[in-house]
Amino acid sequence: MEALVSSAIGMMTAAGVYLMLRQRTFPVIVGLTLLTYAVNVFLFTSGRLATNMPAIYGEGAPGYSDPLPQALVLTAIVISFGMTAVIVMMALGAFLEAGHDKVDMNDEDTPTDGGQK
């Protein structure tokens, strides 16, 4: 099971990095989202690696769930949602200003009239 989860995390990370290296804004946003999903899955599974070891309770405690990875994942989800919203708004503003969604900015894209079109 660990090999399957590790492979899934690796594939999401590789796909996220690949998409972040594209020259259009939409694949960059999707790649960043995939990368945050990979980090969230990694954080969530990090609490499940040790079995039959108490987190806070003494020895002989019944079944438990370590709350720390769950709290970290919940915090990471909220932060990634806010970060994605900011990046989408920045990409939308760049698209409206430049007229296309390419990431690199050429000299012909630089406004010379103070941004007025």
Please describe what this structure looks like.
By secondary structure, the protein is mainly α. The protein has one domain (2-50, 66-104): Helix Hairpins. 62% of the residues lie in helices and 0% in strands. It is built from three helices and no strands. The protein is elongated. The mean pLDDT is 81.
Cα distance spanning the termini: 57 Å
Kindly state the mean pLDDT as a whole number?
Answer: 81
Q: What would you report as the Rg, rounded to the nearest angstrom?
A: 21 Å
Number of strands: 0
Low-confidence stretches: none
The class by helix and strand makeup works out as mainly alpha
Examine the secondary-structure arrangement and name the CATH architecture: Orthogonal Bundle
Strand content: under 5%
Largest beta-sheet details: none
Please give the count of helices.
Answer: 3
Note the run of SSEs as H and E. HHH
Integer count of domains: 1
Q: Which shape, going by the Cα principal axes?
A: elongated
Can you give the helix content as a percent range? 55-70%
Q: In the CATH hierarchy, what is the class?
A: Mainly Alpha
**What is the fold named in CATH at topology level?**
Helix Hairpins
